[in-house]
Amino acid sequence: HYDVCLRLFTFCSEAQLTQGMAEGALTSANEVLKHGKNFHDELPANQALLTAFTIQGNYSNAIVHGMSVLKEFGEDFPTDADEQQAASRTELMRICAVLGSKSFDDIVGQTSVE
Fold first, then answer.
1. Residue range 44-103, pLDDT digits in tens
2. Which secondary structure element, helix H or strand E, spans residue 82, and what is its range?
3. What's the CA gap between 21 and 24, in Å, rounded?
C-alpha cells in the first residue's frame, strides 16, 4: 500500500501544480514528506514543494527548503554572512596560491584546475 499511496500523493501534488493549485500541491507534497521512508521516495515531493513555493512567490521558503534538500545531497552552503565571507576568503586564498605558483604560459596551457 505504501508504494501506491506514495505515487498517488506525488501525482496529486504534480497535477495540482499543472493547474496552478499551489496550496493543494503543498498539502499533498507535505504528506509524502511526512510519511516517506527515504530521501529517494521524497525527492519528487521536494521538487513539487519548491515549485509550489515559487508559484506562490514565497521565495524565502523555496530557498530554505532547497538548501535543505541540497544538504541531503551533501552540498552544504553557509547561511551566515560571516561564514560566507570566511568561505569566500578561504577559496580566494587557495586560488591565489595556485595562480602564484604558475606562469602565464602554464595557466594558458593548462586543461584543468588543480
1. 999 999 999 999 999 989 988 998 999 888 887 766 667 777 777 788 888 878 777 777
2. helix 81-100
3. 6
Q: How far apart are CA 36 and CA 23, in angstroms?
A: 20
Task: Give the residue carrying C-alpha cell 538548501.
Answer: 67
**How does DSSP classify residue 4?**
H
What is the pTM (predicted TM-score) of this model?
0.65
Inter-residue contact 44 to 69 (CB < 8 Å): no
Grouping H, G, I as helix, E, B as strand and the rest as coil, residue 49 is helix
Is 26 exposed, middle or buried, given 0-12, 13-18 or 19+ CB atoms closer than 10 A?
buried
* Residue keyed to cell 529517494: 40
What is the distance between the alpha carbons of residues 111 and 102, in angstroms, rounded to a whole number? 13
Q: 41 and 6 in contact (C-beta within 8 Å)?
A: yes
Indicate the residue type of 98: V
